[in-house]
């Protein structure tokens, strides 16, 4: 039931590569988290009830846990079972906090009306930027509560990062991507404008340092467009990445392949 609601690339790719995703994806800068929590009026001094959608392997979840009051109630949903298994195995919940992780899609949330003070979603909203999901989010969010979104977006600069981005782009077809910003269109729907206020935005600089070619392989193969490829195709991708990494290494004399990011955060208030 849940699997039917998610895009095939996410369902197949993230199921196959959940472990690689956990190992290779960057975390988020503290400043972005603190700012998002402040905008959502979530503080460590007062218990709150929050939901995280598309929690994946729990990269954002673990950071969010640290910002909440220890007596808060925290629910996380993730439609891909393998990602959820990673999340559960890696998470340490503070004593006194109620935490529940459930397999669920944003289009069909197993929660009661107006249950949450805030809803967070990192690196995932573009997969379910539709009115069905937005109506569900509105239903379970308290009046005046905030929907908070975050993405790490690669900054493309210089020859190596440009070559890397061209390789990545060549494997994307119809998969939803944050990069296109097409997900923002759902908020322009007249029905959405009746449910939510304007979308606010801030960005923060971030980086990921990859220390060898294996780390570069893992980072790129954790992307949905690659994660769903056959074993043979993944080997071809690895060869191209190794070629790029070795060229970088010989031309710059450095082992450290730096990927710069802009971490974008958005918040929008429920009417």
Can you tell me about this structure?
The chain has 271 residues and is of the alpha/beta class. The chain is 41% helix and 22% strand. The protein has eleven helices and seven strands. It has helices spanning 8-16, 18-24, 30-39, 59-67, 81-90, 131-140, 158-171, 190-195, 213-221, 224-227, 231-252; strands spanning 49-53, 73-77, 98-102, 116-122, 141-154, 200-210, 257-269. A seven-stranded mixed β-sheet has the order 3-2-1-4-5-7-6. α2 crosses α9 (213-221) and α9 crosses α11 (231-252). The chain is globular. It starts with 7 loop residues before the first helix and ends with a strand. 39% of the residues are buried. The mean pLDDT is 93.
Tally of contiguous helical segments: 11
pLDDT < 50 runs, ≥5 residues: none
Cα gyration radius (Å): 19 Å
Shape: globular
Comma- or semicolon-separated keywords:
41% helix; seven-stranded mixed beta sheet; globular; 11 helices; alpha/beta; single chain
Short description:
The radius of gyration is 19 Å and the shape is globular.
Explain the layout of strands and helices.
Layout: H1 8-16, H2 18-24, H3 30-39, E1 49-53, H4 59-67, E2 73-77, H5 81-90, E3 98-102, E4 116-122, H6 131-140, E5 141-154, H7 158-171, H8 190-195, E6 200-210, H9 213-221, H10 224-227, H11 231-252, E7 257-269
Parallel strand pairs: 1-2, 1-4, 2-3, 4-5
Antiparallel strand pairs: 5-7, 6-7
Helix pairs in contact: 2-9, 9-11
């Amino acid at each position: 039931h849940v699997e039917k609601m998610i895009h095939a690339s996410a369902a197949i790719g993230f199921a196959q590569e959940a472990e690689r995703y956990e190992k290779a994806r960057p975390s988020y800068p503290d400043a972005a988290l603190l700012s998002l929590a402040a905008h959502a009026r979530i503080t460590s001094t007062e218990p709150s009830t929050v939901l995280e959608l598309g929690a994946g392997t729990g990269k954002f979840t673990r950071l969010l846990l640290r910002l909440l009051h220890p007596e808060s109630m925290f629910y996380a949903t993730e439609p891909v079972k393998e990602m959820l298994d990673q999340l559960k195995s890696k998470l340490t919940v503070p004593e006194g906090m109620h935490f529940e992780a459930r397999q669920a899609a944003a289009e069909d949330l197993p929660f009661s009306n107006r249950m949450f003070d805030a809803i967070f979603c990192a690196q995932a909203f573009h997969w379910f930027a539709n009115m069905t999901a937005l109506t569900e989010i509105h239903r379970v969010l308290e009046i005046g509560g905030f929907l908070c979104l975050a993405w790490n977006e690669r900054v493309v600069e210089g020859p190596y990062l440009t070559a890397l981005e061209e390789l990545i782009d060549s494997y994307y077809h119809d998969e939803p991507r944050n990069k296109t910003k097409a997900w923002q269109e759902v908020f322009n729907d007249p029905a959405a404008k009746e449910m939510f206020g304007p979308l606010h935005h801030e960005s923060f600089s971030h980086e990921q340092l990859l220390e060898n070619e294996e780390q570069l392989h893992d980072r790129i193969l954790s992307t949905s467009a690659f994660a769903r490829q056959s074993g043979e195709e993944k080997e071809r991708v690895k060869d191209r990445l190794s070629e790029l990494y070795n060229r970088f290494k010989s031309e710059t004399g450095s082992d450290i392949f730096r990927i710069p990011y802009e971490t974008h955060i958005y918040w929008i208030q429920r009417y």
